[in-house]
Amino acid sequence: KVLIDVPRSDLAEELAQSETKIQVLQDTLQQVLDRREEERQSRQLLELYLEALKTEASILSKVAEPEAAPRKEMDVVDTGTSSTDTSATTALSNQVLAALKEKPAPELCLDSRDLELVLKEDTAALASALGWDKQKAGALQEACDQELSKRLKQVQTLHSLRSTSKGKKALP
User: Per CATH, which fold does 94-167 belong to?
Assistant: First the structure.
């Protein structure tokens, strides 16, 4: 920064170089400073983003816990079959089932844990619980699988960025 602020003629005289070379030197130094500032701002923005994700996740878990905490048994859905057949059971809470039924893109509304539960669920049981056909329930599970995969890739990318960022801090 000091070398950039020194008048070009004084620096040229001190270094016994032409003013043109000093201009190139000062421009290069300014570019380095600008790049460092951009990197610093990018790191800050990423840290804010990660902090916001953590905050959002903790808020969502606190909101979901009071409703989910009292329920320890599994929901049983009556499929209307005779008593000799076993009823379809689902491990999904009423809240998740309601979101699956009511939302146009429920995979975007559910947290990753709920997405995993939807994926583990038997397609027939899920279709029965939602009152849908197996094809529609299968399509929902596929959308949930894609969303969960996308989220996992984002987490991996963030970890990669974090490790890359840590590696750059160690460089001189």
Answer: Dna Fragmentation Factor Alpha Subunit; Chain: A; (1.10.1490)
